[in-house]
Amino acid sequence: MKDNSSTLDVELFERWGPTYERSWMQQRLFDPVHAAVLQHAASYFQPANVLDIGCGSGRLLRKAHVYWPETHLLGVDPAQKMLEVARKLTPEAHFYQGSGEALPLEDASVDLALSTISFHHWHDQAAGVREVARVLRPGGYFLLADFTAPAWLTWLYPRVHSTAQMRALFEQAGLEVQAQPGPVARFVRITIGTRASK
């Protein structure tokens, strides 16, 4: 059975694709979150490859290219129109149509996975975090930045979690939570997890 809200989310981003880069939200919300995520990621290690889940128009990957010019860049997004823009603006990256719950990548193939302000659109968030854990190499990191809410308020927004709920999602997927810095911008917190080295 297809989740109607998830379908509507993808349809919204299909329509938004051609003008997404010009949205006021880029400078006000996405750019500060991207900067914080990349600064935290850079403090951990230099990845051989970076995956952006819910990559949209490729904006975060273009910034990652500045941090790590030799790093292999990968983007996954369910909206074809977003990917068309991403491929034009970010020729140094490889893009795939897909979702967080079904990443078109091999097991243990990613050093650093990122997701910024897209997690609340994922249909099955627990399955998505497990899927990220699957594609991470041992010792790899997942930095997820999304809206958070106090625990008493999350019942109103089922796809927005408290920091404790986000920690639980990571731990249930087998990821060790290293930190949860924030808030970044307003109501956005980063959860940093790693797949244990064997």
UniProtKB/TrEMBL annotation:
InterPro entries: Methyltransf_11, Methyltransf_Superfamily, SAM-dependent_MTases_sf, UbiE/COQ5_MeTrFase_CS. It comes from the Bacteria. The keyword Methyltransferase applies. GO terms for molecular function: S-adenosylmethionine-dependent methyltransferase activity. Keywords: Methyltransferase, S-adenosyl-L-methionine, Transferase. PROSITE patterns: UBIE_2. GO terms for biological process: methylation. Residues 51-143 form the Methyltransferase type domain. SUPFAM superfamilies: S-adenosyl-L-methionine-dependent methyltransferases. The keyword Acyltransferase does not apply. This is Methyltransferase type 11 domain-containing protein. It comes from Tengunoibacter tsumagoiensis.
